[in-house]
User: Which sequence fits this backbone?
């Protein structure tokens, strides 16, 4: 992370930061309509949110303040309500060794759905609340899915999946196998060939995390990691996740949605706080602070 | 992009096969929809097959009997060839030909000779009726015969034995017979009426027919009936003496009968080939009588006897039939053909009155003038390569032997040359043979009529299959043949087939549409249940098109499996319904035997129909699936 002291002025420092940011958002306002409610649900990012390479961002806030809604917009899962009113919405990626800046607001304005999907497929990874693994596939096939969607060669896929299975500790001792079909390696079973419905909660979460970073995305979204696990298991999975992120070739960043302050303090480098709006349903980003520099 | 597409197909396949517990009932539903279509198709095919069975099993189903529809017209070999070549659908034509022959078992040593009258019918290789009885005569051998079991028993012969077949005819000379050796190819078992019948090849019976009609059968060495062809002349010489020549009235009379008479200056004609010395010939008036329109290059041949001209003219003329003498080649002498009555005033003009210009009808004898000392056979080489042998005529007249002979060495062209004398008829027939208008039978030494093609009253022909019968019948009717066939029955079967086919298509269309609606509702529900999975895929970056393809491919796989299941079930039902229980058992009392035939085409139609049904029914659900909001789908999927 570049320091203020290495630049001539705070403004230069700001310029330098922005040139290297993975994600920049400012002036976003998302409105959701519900047929059962007359009012719209509003989520705002009034101030500039800048995510730098290596950042582990925690978006904190009480339930119902729009954290997940914000995730869907930042993760390109939903179109912004009004792309023309967004001040900044940019993604900076590394592709074939070169940096590329993508103006997401422009793409949304052009309704370039195909391009958006391609960007999401290539540069964004998701580890969702319940893991959401594909039930018909094995552990290996689930982790491999983003690699296949992005056209990775077979040999590279195999080595990447093997690495992630090992890195996330997706193994089980023989006496614990309980008939799970796996690849034996002495007394330890590699869970690669196991069907996901045979996994424990922690294993399931780790597979979800492994899948989210398999294709070396620029930006990874982790949604409520403690929703399906207790804190300890979640911590373990996140630690492995964080280690891998830090050791990765690409300068990725992760954005974690959580209401767990402790988890946020332990892992986050940037905390984005959201609070409910006063006069209408919804929430807004009220504070962005960098921690654990 | 191709890699992603193949991955979508892979995902669809994995989802289909690994989560089959969620789809197996879908397979059963679709199979249940298409199975009735398969059974309907099988029932239709089976019903039509039953109707056709009898016609198919019996060769008479594709047999057509024809007669010529034109008065007097007969079916000959040329006609048979034309039909075989020009009428599509004809497999075999067998003219109806039969002959009663005497069949003789060859006597071997002391074995008893047995004879039996047998009616032989014509057959050809490929005869379906004999083939059905297992007695078809193979091609390439016309010396084979099939006989009935009655004939075999009575003659005491078996397959492989040889028999003599005696054919007889009646001629002016009385009863004549010839023999041929045939080998028994097989024995026809007759179930009910036993008859003394046999089947021999059509060419053999055709030759028998030819011989019975009096023709020479060269291939079998069977002689002609012995009657020579009528002698044909293109000229006559009418001799008159002095003023008693042909009058104008005579000339008109001849013209009325189609003949022209003109004086001839030809030396050979005036001197009757030198038989009359030129001095004597000066007192004669010689007319050349020819058929009107006859020219040296295009002669007209007639068979009028010379006496006819003598009778119609008032002049005291002597008319001889005239064929120009032959000379040169191997002949050392002139070959002269003249027939002159013994009591003819013209003989007084001959150098030698006893020249044998007599009405010799024997075709193979000659007289030499002057006589030859050695009286050898005379060999004539014809232009057709046949060598004729003429024997010297045994002379009863000493005068002939002692006739005045002038020194041949002193004779010149105007004098009487040495000659071989044959009858006018012989020389005329020799000419006809060399022109190709007759044949020479060496066994009798007679010039006989050329065989005319046989003609038949009716013929049997067979089509390749019964479905071609109506069209062939129509074609034959246009060619003026009278026809008898099973065409009416076959056409009726075709109509039933078409009607049933239409019924099947109507029902199948209804079932198919119902199937689409059912599949649509089933897959819509199935896709709704999979919203969560589809949402994950969309989140991971699978495009809308990819989701569409996933759902569609999965539905197609459902269709294939359903089609196969329906096919297996269809076969099983077919076997059960077609099975005939043992008589007397309980099942036999109530189980109907239904003719149902499930064909490969039917199965292909049903499998394709199942795939289409599933695919079409899946289009809307696939479209809806591709349009779901990814995150909403995930959230909703958590609660399903």
Assistant:
């Amino acid at each position: 992370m570049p320091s203020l002291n290495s630049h001539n002025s705070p403004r230069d420092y700001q310029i330098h930061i922005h040139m290297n940011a993975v994600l920049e958002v400012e002036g976003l306002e998302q409105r959701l309509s519900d047929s059962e409610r007359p009012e719209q649900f509003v989520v705002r990012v009034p101030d500039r949110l800048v995510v730098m390479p290596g950042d582990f961002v925690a978006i904190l806030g009480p339930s119902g303040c729009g954290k997940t809604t914000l995730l869907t917009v930042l993760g390109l899962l939903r179109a912004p309500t009004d792309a023309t009113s967004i001040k900044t919405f940019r993604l900076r990626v590394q592709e074939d060794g070169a940096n590329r800046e993508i103006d997401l607001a422009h793409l949304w304005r052009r309704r370039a759905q195909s391009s958006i999907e391609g960007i999401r497929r290539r540069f964004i990874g998701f580890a969702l609340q319940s893991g959401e693994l594909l039930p018909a596939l094995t552990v290996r096939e689930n982790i491999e899915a983003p690699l296949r969607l992005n056209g990775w060669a077979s040999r590279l896929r195999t080595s990447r999946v093997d690495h992630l299975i090992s890195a996330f500790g997706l193994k089980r001792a023989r006496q614990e196998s309980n008939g799970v079909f796996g690849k034996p390696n002495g007394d330890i079973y590699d869970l690669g060939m196991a069907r996901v419905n045979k996994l424990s909660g922690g294993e399931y979460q780790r597979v979800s995390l492994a899948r989210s970073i398999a294709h070396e995305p620029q930006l990874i979204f982790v949604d409520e990691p403690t929703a399906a696990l207790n804190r300890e298991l979640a911590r373990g999975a996140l630690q492995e996740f964080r280690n891998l992120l830090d050791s990765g070739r690409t300068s990725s960043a992760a954005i974690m949605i959580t209401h767990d302050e402790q988890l946020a303090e332990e892992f986050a480098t940037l905390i984005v706080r959201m609070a409910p709006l006063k006069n209408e349903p919804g929430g807004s980003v009220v504070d962005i602070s960098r921690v654990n520099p | 992009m191709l890699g992603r597409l193949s991955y979508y197909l892979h995902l669809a396949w994995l989802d289909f096969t690994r989560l089959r517990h969620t789809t197996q009932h879908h397979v059963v539903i679709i199979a249940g929809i298409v199975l009735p279509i398969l059974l309907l198709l099988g029932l239709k095919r089976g019903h039509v097959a039953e109707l056709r069975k009898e016609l198919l099993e019996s060769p008479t189903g594709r047999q057509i009997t024809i007669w010529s529809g034109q008065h007097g017209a007969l079916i000959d070999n040329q006609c048979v060839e034309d039909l075989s070549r020009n009428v599509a659908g004809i497999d075999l034509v067998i003219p109806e030909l039969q002959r009663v022959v005497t069949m003789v078992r060859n006597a071997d040593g002391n074995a008893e000779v047995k004879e039996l009258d047998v009616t032989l019918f014509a057959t050809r290789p490929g005869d379906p009726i004999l083939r059905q009885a297992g007695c078809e005569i193979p091609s390439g051998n016309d010396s084979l015969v099939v006989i009935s079991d009655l004939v075999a028993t009575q003659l005491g012969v078996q397959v492989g034995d040889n028999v003599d077949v005696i054919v007889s005819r009646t001629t002016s000379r009385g009863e004549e017979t010839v023999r041929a050796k045939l080998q028994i190819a097989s024995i026809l078992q007759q179930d009910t009426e036993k008859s003394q019948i046999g089947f021999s090849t059509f060419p053999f019976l055709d030759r028998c027919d030819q011989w019975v009609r009096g023709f020479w059968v060269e291939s079998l060495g069977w002689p002609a009936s012995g009657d020579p062809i009528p002698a044909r002349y293109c000229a006559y010489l009418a001799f008159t003496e002095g003023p008693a020549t042909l009058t104008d009235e005579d000339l008109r009379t001849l013209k009325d009968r189609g003949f022209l008479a003109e004086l001839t200056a030809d030396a050979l004609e005036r001197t009757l080939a030198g038989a009359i010395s030129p001095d004597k010939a000066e007192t004669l008036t010689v007319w050349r009588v020819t058929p009107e329109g006859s020219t040296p290059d295009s002669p007209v041949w007639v068979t009028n006897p010379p006496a006819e001209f003598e009778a119609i003219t008032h002049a005291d003329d002597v008319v001889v039939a005239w064929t120009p003498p032959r000379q040169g080649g191997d002949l050392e002498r002139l070959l002269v053909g003249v027939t002159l009555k013994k009591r003819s005033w013209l003989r007084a003009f001959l150098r030698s009155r006893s020249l044998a210009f007599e009405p010799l009808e024997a075709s193979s004898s000659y007289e030499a003038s002057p006589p030859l000392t050695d009286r050898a056979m005379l060999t004539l080489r014809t232009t057709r390569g046949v060598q004729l042998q003429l024997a010297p005529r045994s002379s009863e007249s000493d005068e002939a032997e002692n006739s005045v002979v002038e020194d041949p060495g002193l004779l010149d062209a105007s004098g009487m040359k040495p000659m071989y004398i044959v009858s006018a008829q012989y020389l005329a027939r020799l000419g006809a043979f060399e022109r190709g208008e007759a044949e020479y039978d060496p066994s009798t030494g007679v010039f006989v009529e050329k065989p005319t093609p046989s003609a038949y009253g009716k013929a049997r022909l067979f089509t390749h299959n019964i479905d071609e019968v109506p069209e062939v019948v129509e074609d034959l009717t246009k060619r003026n043949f009278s026809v008898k066939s099973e065409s009416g029955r076959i056409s009726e079967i075709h109509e039933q087939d078409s009607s049933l086919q239409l019924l099947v298509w109507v029902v199948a269309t209804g079932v198919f549409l119902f199937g689409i609606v059912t599949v649509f509702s089933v897959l819509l529900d199935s896709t709704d249940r999979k919203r969560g999975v589809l949402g994950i895929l969309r989140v991971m970056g699978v495009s809308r098109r990819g989701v569409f393809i996933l759902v569609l491919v999965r539905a197609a796989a459902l269709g294939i499996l359903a089609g196969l299941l329906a096919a297996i079930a269809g076969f099983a039902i077919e076997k059960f319904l077609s099975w005939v229980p043992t008589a007397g058992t309980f099942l036999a009392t109530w189980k109907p035997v239904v003719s149902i035939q499930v064909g490969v085409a039917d199965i292909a139609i049903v499998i394709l129909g199942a795939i289409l049904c599933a695919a079409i029914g899946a289009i809307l659900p696939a479209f809806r699936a591709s349009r779901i909001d990814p995150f909403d789908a995930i959230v909703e999927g958590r609660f399903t």
User: Anything to note?
Assistant: Residues 231-247 of chain A form the longest helix (17 residues). Confidence is low (pLDDT under 50) at residues 1-8 of chain A.
